[in-house]
Amino acid sequence: MKNILVLCTGNSCRSQMAHGYLNTFAKDKATIYSAGIETHGLNPGALAIMKEDGLDISHHTSNNVTEYNSVDFDYILTVCDHANENCPFIPSKNAVRLHHNFFDPSKVKGTDEEKHAAFLKAREEIKAYCKEFIEKHFI
Predict the structure, then answer these.
(1) Considering 42, 54, 79, 137, which has the largest number of Cβ atoms within 10 A of its Cβ?
(2) Is 84 helix (H, G, I), strand (E, B) or coil?
(3) pTM of the full predicted structure?
(4) Which residue has better confidence, 46 or 87?
(5) What confidence tens digit (pLDDT) does each residue in 90-128 have?
(6) Among residues 8, 35, 65, 83, which one is catalytic?
(7) Annotated catalytic, 8?
(8) Which of 57, 80, 83, 126 is catalytic?
């Protein structure tokens, strides 16, 4: 069983969505963790957009990366430039580190429709990335 860490700035939105999709696509082949270099709590927009796709991530928690110092990760996926540039040392022996900067829908200001479109765009990009990642590394 492989250990995968998804890392973002606040572990509230993009990393939570990726966590949900990686759990779905990896099934029993990996244990998925998500964390932030800070903790901002779960973003309601992320919860709602994932629910629209049939995934309930409301049981997830917003965790700080230091909570997982004892876990030996096989993969560390950073999903925003800020986390990639400011990531603290993670004591995993041979972790493969991959980075993809996803658009942050939580920063969008505007109408409810514009905010929804932003979360939908981010969700679909994250979903495709996670599906491709699992297919490449686990199937």
Answers:
(1) 79
(2) helix
(3) 0.95
(4) 46
(5) 878 889 999 999 999 999 999 999 999 999 999 999 999
(6) 8
(7) yes
(8) 80
